[in-house]
Write a structure and sequence with these properties.
Blueprint lengths: L11 H9 L3 H18 L1 H15 L5 H47 L3 H5 L3 H9 L6 H4 L1 H23 L1 H48 L1 H6 L3 H50 L4 H42 L21 E11 L2 E11 L4 E5 L6 H8 L7 E6 L2 E2 L5 H5 L2 E4 L10 H5 L8 H10 L3 H4 L19 H15 L3 E5 L7 H15 L3 E5 L11 E6 L2 E6 L1 H7 L2 H11 L1
Parallel strand pairs: 3-8, 3-9, 6-7, 7-8
Antiparallel strand pairs: 1-2, 1-4, 4-5, 9-10
Amino acid sequence: MQPQKPKARVSLRTVFKTIIWPRKKLIFIGLLLILISRAAGLVPPWATKPFMDDILVSRQMDKLPWLLAVLTVAILIQAVTSYVLTIILSVEAQHLISVLRAKVQKHLLRLPTRFFDNQKSGALVSRVMNDVEGVRNLVGTGLVQLVGGVLTALLSVGFLIYINPWMTLFVVLPMSVFGIITLKAFSIIRPVFRERGKITADVTGRLTETLNGIRVIKGFNAEPQEIKVFEAGVEQLFKNIKKSLTSTSFVTSSGTFLVGLASVGIMGLSGYFELSAGDFLQFTMFMVFMIAPIVQMSNIGSQLTEAFAGLDRTEELMNLPVEDDGTVRTVQVEKINGHFEFKDVSFAYEEGKPVLKNISFSAAAGSVTALVGTSGSGKTTIAGLVATFLNPDSGTITLDGQDLSKISLTSYRSQLGVVLQDDFLFEGTIRENILFPRPDATEADVQQAVKAAFVNEFTDRFEKGLDTVIGERGVKLSGGQRQRIAIARAILANPRVLILDEATSNLDTESESFIQESLKTLMEGRTTFVIAHRLSTIRQATQILVIEAGAIAERGTHDELIAHNGRYYQLYTYQARI
């Protein structure tokens, strides 16, 4: 087992370099627009003094039209800049989210198969779709609103100092305390948001498993226990949200208290300094315009903190090493002959618990190697090593004389075909599933694969034939029908190396006889590895390896092993009797 890596933590510098700086032109335009918008927003509080003192008190009514015109223009500027700002930055934020999702999904698909063995598919979906959502607040209006709030606050402080510096000092001090509290709170909240992402992924993963396994759940009347598991998950999520709400609520309440305290003090100081009605109203308005962005910044800060927490989890995923490492797998293979050599290969899924122990054998190009043995003996692990889903812990596997661990996976797997015992079909039509390895295949190629796998034997009875929708994982088809589609898919792929994991296990007797003939055609000239439980299907194999407890107990042809009267003979005669 690999040691657990420390959790990734995205720095502000990294975010600036990778997300903000590449979009500097758009963000600069956004900042310019927010500056214009906030400057226009300061016109209404400024207008309160001339409106109060000159128009209402002194009755200088000739100034009213001019004042109303200025206010109207300022409001129009605010509306236009706000609209343009939202269109420019919000659209770019959504584009960035789509780019990041695609980037994470691309990296995810390049991770080793063993990674997925320890992960819930629903949890990974949550990480791809949800963890990057927060960047909308980094590139969208959140960041520029934060900067705009700072500018508005600073400009308001300038006006306040001009009106009365001592009263301004009384307002600024409690706001400084509020700023310190906010920064401290956000440093506490970030891990909480990060933990929320993990809990959400776990709950989503379990729900996905529940829905995928609904027939098993109903078959065992297990709905109550699944309900309890899900309720426990959402309860844990609630507690996390409650914790973050408590922290953010404390910040908001602190701001409300300090704003109220400042307001009470201003009322007293206004009387002490004998401010006019216009000066008092103007000071109060500018104070509101200074405080409101600061309180707003606390909310935006919470959103940015959540964004950083999501990016932390995304970075953690992106730091995982991919399986097709271009610095290690440097050998490109154009045409595979298919000669395999296992030399003292050992493998363990868990440290100290070997599954394979010093396995050595060769498989000539175009040969058929059958792997037989009891469940858990290591047959599927050998096939996984051939498919490069796994890498040996020790020993080497060579393909045509080249170390398989050095061969580019793209070049190798483009010539590999796999048919599993429980092969996966995608939601869609039968045709789309057969075309999966070669989307550009001709209709003649498709029909050839369909006939070779006897798929037409049942699709001809369907109203829409190959264009029949099969449902999620092919739920609308029988096991034998799904298996034949998987075999047709492998036939269309036309691989040089073929792995069959009990490919006829889900077929009835009549279909099996058809498929045995099609598999002979499929295996001809290809290096094939067959995992077989039904030993009657491998009598013509070039060599049969009997795997027991991670080692090769016997090897030879069917006739040789029967004559040997050993473990294979026992397995074969036992199956013949049942």
